[in-house]
Amino acid sequence: KQVDSTVNLDNLAAKTAGSSGADLANIANEAAIIAARRDAKKISNADLTEAFEKVAIGPERKTKVMNEKEKELTAYHEAGHAIVGHILPDSDPVHKVTIIPRGSTGGVTWFLPPEDKSYTSVYEFKDILARAMGGRVAEKILYGDDGITTGAGSDLRKATEIARDMIIDQGMGTKLRDQVFHDDNGGMVFDKMTHSRPYSDATAKLIDEEVEALIREAAVRAESVIQTNRKSLEKLANALLEQETLEEEAVVEILKDAVLPKDARLHG
Ligand code: ZN
To answer: What is the pTM (predicted TM-score) of this model?
Structure first.
């Protein structure tokens, strides 16, 4: 496919690290369609970026109407993810934050690794968990304990999945460090219950406790970051309400006064 001189392939390569060949073909096809729609003969960098985002997180749904209250909640929710990920030292940097509905979500905060990465440390996982909790925690701080919404449902699901993977597959528990409990037979949960769980009930209980401890620690760290930086959170949420989408440079500028509180720190 023909591309024009604005296209930055190194940048695209960094963003698509880990994508399959089919994903890449999909992005190229989308970009060609977007270019054709504006009657261009060559694909521009803007076309490619739009195509990449569409394939990675679903198309923008500008027609979906959000009322003012939900818009505000979404802005604070996304600002919560962004500020926690921005401040924690082992999180990837914020790439983009938007409160325009995309795919099935109300908004998106997007983190991208600066370079290709094959391994993830416990520190990095813990920062991923904390930033995933940032949306729910921001809602709680703004709207009170029971003012929280279903907007965090998929964040919590993802966080629990990561925490379980850390404990069961990666030997990253505290009490269960260096032990792996994955059941290679796969199959349905029902099967596992009836015949093939490779560990005792006591271990199953420990696994649940370890997962809970990880999620709890993540929520506490997210809350510490957000409480410490309430002013920055407010600034970011207001900027989102005004502009709807903020790129990395804008986020970094808005959060320039935000600090890492001592109790959210995991290492020196
Ligand atoms: Zn969220």
So the answer is: 0.83
- 214, two tokens: 């990880």
Residues of the chain below pLDDT 70: 63-64, 104, 183-196
Alpha helices in the chain (DSSP H): 9-15, 21-37, 45-57, 68-87, 122-143, 153-168, 189-191, 201-228, 230-243, 248-254
Q: What's the gap in Å between 151 CA and the centre of ligand 1?
A: 6
How close is the Cα of 137 to the center of ligand 1, in Å?
10
Q: Output the CA–CA distances (angstroms, integers) from residue 71 to 53, 74, 151, 251, in the order listed.
A: 21, 5, 11, 18
pLDDT of residue 223: 98
Using an 8 Å Cβ cutoff, are 266 and 214 in contact? no
| CA-wise closest residue to 14 among 119, 108, 112 | 112
Alpha carbon distance 219, 26 (integer Å): 36
Tell me the catalytic residues. Answer: 78
Ligand 1 centroid, distance to 90 Cα (angstroms)? 19
Give pLDDT, residue 195: 56
> What is the CA(2)–ligand 1 centre distance, in A?
37
Pick from 243, 141, 93, 87: nearest CA to 235: 243
d(CA 243, CA 257): 20
Per-chain residues with Cβ under 5 A from ion ligand 1: 135, 155
* Contact of 82 with 251, CB cutoff 8 Å: yes
DSSP state of 92: P
Tell how far the Cα of 105 is from the centroid of ligand 1, in angstroms: 8
Q: Are the C-beta atoms of residues 91 and 244 closer than 8 Å to each other?
A: no
CA–CA separation, 76 and 121 (whole Å):
29
